[in-house]
From TrEMBL:
Species per Swiss-Prot/TrEMBL record: Mycoplana azooxidifex
GO molecular function, one term: aldehyde-lyase activity
One annotated Gene Ontology cellular component of this protein: cytosol
EC number: 4.1.1.104
Name used for this protein in its record: 3-oxo-tetronate 4-phosphate decarboxylase
Amino acid sequence: MTAILSEETRLRDEIAGVGRSLFDRLFTFGSTGNISARLSSGEMLMTPTNASLGALDPGRLSKFSAEGVHLSGDKPTKEAFLHQCMYCERQDAGAVVHLHSTHAVAVSIIEGLDEADLLPPLTAYYAMRVGRLPLVPYYPPGDAALAGAVAEKARDSHAVLLANHGPVVAGATLREAQYATEELEETAKLFLMLRGERIRPLTAEQRDALARK
Ligand SMILES: O=C(O)[C@@H](O)C(=O)COP(=O)(O)O
Ligand SMILES: [Zn+2]
């Protein structure tokens, strides 16, 4: 007989599976990064603080009410406010992924890039999955001011890059947030590989046509 899993059980398993996949493929390291997902009730599941994304226990994820009160599970990620801010600004968001992926972190440290949109649209897939990438000024991890600064940039973009820290990406589903975060990292890698070369990114018209799809 096929067991029918509840939405929450499915989402818990998915968070652990996505975390393991990202960790195993070196998209984040140690106990860096955090993941959250929103249930249709508005309640949120988040990864616990100091947990490795490679070894999450679905039953120990932190659960929050729709109003942001910690209800159960382990002590939540110190970026819980940041995740909640993303959901406030992005009404369509069903999940948020934050990583310390190496190439994106490197881009977050470079001086002199366009802080309203750090990476050029090198490929169609980047334009479709990520779009624009604003820089959020530096604040220490877990600082309440970091959450406010993210909210300001998230109004116009589902993906932001925290200065000297890493990407935060919202998606309608956890898979969408995961794929967009991976695309951001690969494009950051391409951008660094191509520094010093003459490049031909997509034009504004080509990018805008893809963003509408
Ligand atoms: O960079 C940090 O300290 C946090 O943003 C992070 O990535 C991991 O913190 P926890 O989710 O509290 O473990
Ligand atoms: Zn972090």
